[in-house]
Structures are given as C-alpha cells and as structure tokens.
Design a protein that fits this description.
The complex is a heterodimer of chains A (about 400) and B (about 180). Chain A has helices at about 5-15, 20-35, 50-65, 90-95, 135-140, 175-180, and strands spanning about 85, 130, 150-155, 170, 185-190, 200-210, 210-220, 225-230, 240-245, 250, 255-260, 260-275, 275-285, 295-300, 305-315, 315-325, 330-340, 345-355, 360-365, 370-375, 380-390, 390-395, 405. Chain A has about 400 residues and is an alpha+beta fold. Chain B is an all-alpha fold and about 180 residues long. The chains are: A alpha+beta (about 400), B mainly alpha (about 180).
C-alpha cells in the first residue's frame, strides 16, 4: 500500500461517526408510526415530458382508478380474478355514493371495496393529493379529445407497500377529476392481485393531432415507467414508441439500484438512398439533464445483412460503434471511444476490424505535457509522443527516441 | 465478520431489533464512507446514513437472504445520495465550501492532521476521483466493484484512480 493510501485509511479510521444506532431506531419508529397513520400514494412527477397531455392523462388514469365501482365484479378472493367495469364520466363523478365502492374526500385515503366471498377489502391506498405537471393547462385544453382509458391495476391490497412521490406542489383530487369531466368510457381492469405488492399498470389511449397516442404506466414501489407510442401518422408512416423511466429505485443485482430518470423513444422508419429503400429501427434515450444520451440504430440491408450503429455519450465521454452483421455474425467493426476525466485528461481509442479479419487499434492519451499516439496491429506496436511546444509541436518515436516530424 | 453480519441480518428479518446495534456497528463505517465519498460532508453523510438504515429496516423482511446485505445498504445509500444531489443541485455548489469546513471542523483529532487528508483530497481531486479513491481505499472495494457501483467502465475507474493517486502524491509532496 502506498503512503497516500495509508494516510487516507488512517484518516478514515480516526474519523468519528456520531450517529448512534439508537438515533436510527428512534427515527425508524417515528416513521413507522407516521406511516401507519398516513398511508397514501402520491403519484406524480414534475415537468416530465414534452407532451404534458400524455402525462396528465396518465395521471388521470391513476387518479380515477380507485373511484370506479367494483361492486358487481367477480373478485372472489385477493390474488385471483379480474374486474372490468365500464363507466361514463357522469357516473365517475357521482359514483362516490355507490355503496361499498369508493369514497372521495379530498385529502383522505381512497378505498375501493369489492365484495369478495369474504367481503375482503380491495384497497387502492391511493392518493388524495398529487402534484400537477407544469403542462397542466395544455392537458386540460386537450382533454376534450380524450376518448378512453383502460387501466389495469396489479395493485396494492392490504400489505404495506407505499411509494414516495414528489410533493412540491399539490392539488385536490376533486380539482383534477373536475378538469377531466369530458372523460368517457373509462375501463378499469384489475387482475393478478397479490397481497402486499405495490405495483400498478395503467394503460390508455388518446386521440391527438398526429394520431392515436397510447400509453402505459407501470408503477412499482417508487419506480415509475411510462410508455407511450404514437401510431398511424398518415403523413410519413412514422411512429414512435417512447417511454419515461424514473423514480427512486428499481430492483437490481444487489437489491436496489437507482434508476435515473431516463426518457426514450423508439422509432421505425425508412431511409431512401437513390432507388433503394432500407428499413430502420432504433431507439434514443436521454436522461433528464441531457448528460446521457444513447442511440441505437439498425439499418436492414437484406434478410441476412444489417448495419448497427450505437452511440452513447455521457458527462464522462463518448462512445461510437458501427457494426456490420451478416448471417448473424459481426463482419466488421469500427469503434471510437473518448473518455474524459477533466479538461486536461482523456483517453481516445479507436478500433477498426475489417471483414477480411484485419484489425487496427489506435490510442491517444494525454500524459502531462504530451500526447501518446499509439498504434497496434497484429503484434506491431508503435508509440509516438506528440509534444506541443511554444513554437509548434514535435513527434518523437518512442522506439527510436528520434524526433520524426517537427 | 460477514458471517456475523448475516446472522444479525437474519435476526432483523425476524423483526428482532435487539440485533440492530451490533449490526450497525459492524456495517456503519463502510456505509458511511460510501456516502461520504459522494456527499463529502460528514454531517450530511450522517443524515443520509440515518435515512439509509431507516429505509433498510422498513424493507428488511422482504430482502432476499442471499443478498450481500452490506452491498444492499451501500446501494440504498448511493440512491439517497443521488436523490439528495438531484434535489439540491442548485445550491450544492454554493454549499460545498461550507461542507468542506464542516468535515474538517467536526472531526475530532484534527490536530493530528487526519482530517486534513480529506481536505487535501477534496481540493485536489474531482468528484469522481474522490469517490473512487474513498471507495477503493476506505471501503476496500475492488476497481471492478467500483465500476459496477458507479456505472463506469473498469478502465475508466482504473485510470481515474491512478490519476488521482498521482495528483495526491504531487500535492502531498508540496505540502511537505
């Protein structure tokens, strides 16, 4: 271990952690008590997408689901059967009086009660107040086009699942419902209900200017995944299938792993070059800060041959790959990768592997005041240092130590 | 130690909170420094560590026994750090000077100079280098584990670590 490491280790060992286990247990108990009193789901997400309409509709889907009567539906026991209820907007608004179904009371928790064999309570412990998106006004304007929501909740029953939402701005449940009074043909479907699972799936569709938008929201713990696609754009047969993924946590290899807010769009289209037309499919993903971008594009040449282009960039660098696949095998590969560590330090590497099997690697790295330009191919390796000087620059061959160009 | 942690973890899963104190003592340093690596402030790190354990306790009964519980805690802590930085991104830069003082100021034995090491690290290394060095040296994570933890290529982690060490060496030589 080098001296610097020893010093750091020593500093860490002597660093006092004041927090005690009792402090933690005290907070844990307080939160447990608080949770027991106020179980609710707050489902929202600020400034989410360019299409506020879609998101607000999703929000609506989440909001209206718990209000729909399940009284005549065949939930026989928790964990099985399904519910499908058609209900119009008038019923939706007034249905709060339906016995043994739902209750609406401003800021309180909702319970949808379905009369199963044991009169079990099917509880959507949902929400009373939610944050509205910045695009609310736009969504409200467009709501007249809204035709249907189909929502399916694999939702929380009993159990203690709950999710933290964003609480920056809140509005009452009634306000939201009232802003969607033209909603019609609500379909609510609940299936595969399992005790204690806090996950929901809501699907819907919306007639927009450019075609039919369909959307799907998956909500599991505090992880939210939203998909939407736009179909039947008759002008250029283009469709996109976009999604948002965000929230706090998703399941990972080590339990929980953070899922950053990622947005994406899938696309299908055609590239026309001269008299030839090639099918393309792809996906573009970004995060909410636009620091991360991932693009995958596939161009199909024939049944057995296609090109794949991958481009990924984030704050730490850039990676570009171009591959030619034929009969299932990568025949050629061209890649370039740049990793930056700070303004003065980076690694740039490029690889060319051609369909004849030849391969060339290039590396450019910065070491102090010079760049190391390295070339490798089939055992050959050549390293040339590039120095920037006051009066120009020079190249020095590292094998011969000779200055080769100035 | 890992075996003992696992035994205590099983007790916690059965809601036996008497196991928590020992469990905390055995895991806290690793969890704390994984948070400190990102947050760089001792008091804030303790706040986030408290939330980490509270969150852990809330879900402990559902956690798979096969999981590495320390990694699980570290991952929860990392997520909470990201949430914190996201929510406070506008003010964090402004606060960072205070945070530096915070770390130096509330650390005992300052006269022995150990907290100066963190101060030097913060002044010399960028955020990512700081995190990688703490995770490697203090939390004893391998470069491969760090790469997975922070979502960066292994080569980048190795490069950043070596680069950080070079920077620290130069800086410490100057300090002498």
């Amino acid at each position: 271990m080098i001296d610097e490491e020893k010093l750091i280790k020593l500093a860490a060992q002597k660093h006092e952690i004041k927090l005690s286990s009792q402090d933690i247990l005290k907070k844990y108990e307080l939160e447990q008590q608080s949770d027991a009193k106020k179980k609710r789901w707050i489902f929202s997400r600020p400034g989410l997408y360019t299409s506020g309409t879609i998101l607000s509709l999703c929000l609506l889907a989440v909001l209206v689901v718990p209000h729909i009567s399940n009284a005549n539906n065949p939930i026989s026991e928790v964990g099985v059967d399904s519910v499908v209820t058609d209900i119009d907007s008038e019923t939706l608004i007034s249905d709060s009086t339906t016995p043994a179904t739902t209750s609406i009371s401003g800021d309180t928790t909702q319970l949808a009660i379905a009369p199963g064999t044991d009169n079990e309570v099917v509880g959507f412990e949902i929400l009373s107040s939610v944050e509205l998106f910045d695009e609310t006004s736009e969504a409200t304007t467009d709501s007249s086009n809204f035709t249907s929501i189909k929502a399916r909740g694999d939702d929380h029953i009993g159990g203690d699942g709950q999710g933290d939402g964003f609480r920056d701005q809140q509005t009452s449940f009634e306000d939201v419902v009232n802003s969607y009074e033209k909603v019609e043909n609500i379909v609510y479907q609940a299936s595969n209900l399992k005790d204690g699972i806090a996950s929901s799936v809501y699907e819907g569709s919306y007639e927009g200017t450019y075609g039919t938008y369909t959307f799907k929201v998956v909500y599991q713990d505090s992880d939210i995944v939203l998909y939407y696609n736009v179909a039947e754009d008759t002008e250029d047969f283009y469709y996109s299938d976009s999604y948002y993924r965000g929230g706090g946590e998703g399941k990972g290899d080590n339990g929980h792993q953070n899922v950053n807010n990622h947005f994406g769009s899938r696309f299908n289209g055609e590239i026309v070059l001269g008299d030839k037309t090639y099918q393309t499919t792809g996906i573009r993903e970004t995060d909410d800060n636009e620091e991360f971008e991932n693009i995958n594009l596939t161009i199909t040449i024939s049944e057995s041959k296609f090109y794949m282009i991958n481009q990924m960039s984030d704050e730490g660098g850039f990676n570009y790959e171009y591959l030619l696949y034929e009969n299932g095998w990568a025949q050629a590969y061209y890649g370039i990768s740049v990793t930056t560590f700070d303004d003065d330090t980076f690694i740039c590497s490029a690889t060319i592997q051609d369909s004849d099997g030849s391969r060339y690697d290039f590396f450019v790295t910065q070491e102090g005041d010079y760049f190391d330009l390295e070339y490798r191919s089939r055992g050959d390796r050549r390293s040339i240092y590039l120095y920037y000087l006051e009066d120009g620059h020079k190249y020095v061959d590292q094998d011969t130590k000779e200055e080769i160009i100035k | 130690m890992d075996e003992r942690i696992n035994i205590l973890f099983e007790q916690l899963k059965k809601n036996d909170m008497s196991a928590f104190d020992e469990f905390y003592q055995l895991t806290k340093r690793q969890v704390y420094f994984s948070i400190f690596a990102v947050i760089k402030s001792s008091s804030l790190s303790e706040d986030i560590m408290q939330d980490t354990y509270v969150k852990f306790l809330k879900s402990v009964s559902k956690i798979d026994s096969q999981k590495n519980v320390t990694s699980y805690l570290i991952t929860i802590g990392k997520n909470l750090c990201i949430d914190y930085l996201r929510k406070n991104s506008r003010v964090y830069d402004l606060e960072s000077y205070d945070n530096y003082e915070d770390v130096v100021g509330d650390t005992p034995n300052r006269e022995e100079g150990q907290s100066d090491v963190f101060k030097i690290m913060r002044e010399t290394l960028n955020d990512k280098e700081f995190e990688i060095v703490i995770l490697h040296v203090v939390d004893e994570m391998t470069h491969k584990e760090i790469a997975k933890h922070i979502g960066r290529p292994l080569g980048s982690v190795t490069w950043a670590y070596n680069n950080a060490m070079k920077k620290l060496r130069k800086r410490m030589e100057r300090e002498k």
